[in-house]
């Protein structure tokens, strides 16, 4: 089960279809997971503000600043199939979309896909990991009709 929770109305004001966009991106990412991960996996997409993400980032990562997306994987062996939660900061995401000349909807979907992949163990700490993760992101986003977020060569998340 995918749940999209909106904590900051700025998301709805900017993107009235934000719940649908978040759900579609999370669902598309989950559909690319290997079958051994199981079926009926669940997660929460939490759409909030910069201050809430800043607080989460500080408490869980020791970084006192907002960021675009945070992923919080569930502990291994979760019997309910809940793989975790992702949180997105409206202000950071909106600024990045504007700076990168991207539609906010496309940036949101990219960050949701990116966050879901982090929940299931993908990372981008090394060039090899980044290439693998970005390749999968491109495939998933293409299926959603979202342009390649890495076309200019910048790593954003």
TrEMBL record:
<feature type="binding site">
    <location>
        <position position="124"/>
    </location>
    <ligand>
        <name>Zn(2+)</name>
    </ligand>
</feature>
<comment type="similarity">
    <text>Belongs to the endoribonuclease YbeY family.</text>
</comment>
<keyword id="KW-0378">Hydrolase</keyword>
<dbReference type="InterPro" id="IPR023091">
    <property type="entry name" value="MetalPrtase_cat_dom_sf_prd"/>
</dbReference>
<keyword id="KW-0698">rRNA processing</keyword>
<keyword id="KW-0963">Cytoplasm</keyword>
<keyword id="KW-0862">Zinc</keyword>
<keyword id="KW-0255">Endonuclease</keyword>
<keyword id="KW-0690">Ribosome biogenesis</keyword>
<keyword id="KW-0540">Nuclease</keyword>
<keyword id="KW-0479">Metal-binding</keyword>
<comment type="function">
    <text>Single strand-specific metallo-endoribonuclease involved in late-stage 70S ribosome quality control and in maturation of the 3' terminus of the 16S rRNA.</text>
</comment>
<dbReference type="InterPro" id="IPR002036">
    <property type="entry name" value="YbeY"/>
</dbReference>
<feature type="binding site">
    <location>
        <position position="114"/>
    </location>
    <ligand>
        <name>Zn(2+)</name>
    </ligand>
</feature>
<dbReference type="Pfam" id="PF02130">
    <property type="entry name" value="YbeY"/>
</dbReference>
<dbReference type="InterPro" id="IPR020549">
    <property type="entry name" value="YbeY_CS"/>
</dbReference>
<feature type="binding site">
    <location>
        <position position="118"/>
    </location>
    <ligand>
        <name>Zn(2+)</name>
    </ligand>
</feature>
<protein>
    <recommendedName>
        <fullName>Endoribonuclease YbeY</fullName>
        <ecNumber>3.1.-.-</ecNumber>
    </recommendedName>
</protein>
């Amino acid at each position: 089960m995918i749940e999209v929770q909106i904590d900051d109305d700025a998301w709805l004001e900017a993107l009235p279809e934000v719940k649908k966009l978040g759900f579609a991106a999370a669902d598309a990412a989950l559909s690319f997971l290997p079958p051994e991960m199981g079926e009926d996996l669940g997660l929460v997409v939490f759409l909030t503000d910069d201050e809430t993400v800043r607080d989460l980032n500080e408490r869980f990562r020791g970084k006192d600043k907002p960021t675009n997306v945070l992923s919080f994987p569930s502990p291994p062996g979760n019997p309910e199939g809940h793989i975790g939660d992702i949180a997105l900061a409206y202000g950071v995401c909106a600024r990045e979309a504007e700076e990168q000349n991207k539609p906010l909807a496309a940036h949101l979907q990219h960050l949701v896909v990116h966050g879901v992949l982090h929940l299931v163990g993908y990372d981008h700490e090394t060039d090899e990991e980044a290439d693998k993760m970005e390749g999968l992101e491109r495939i998933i986003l293409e299926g959603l009709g979202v342009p390649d977020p890495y076309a200019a060569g910048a790593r954003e998340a």
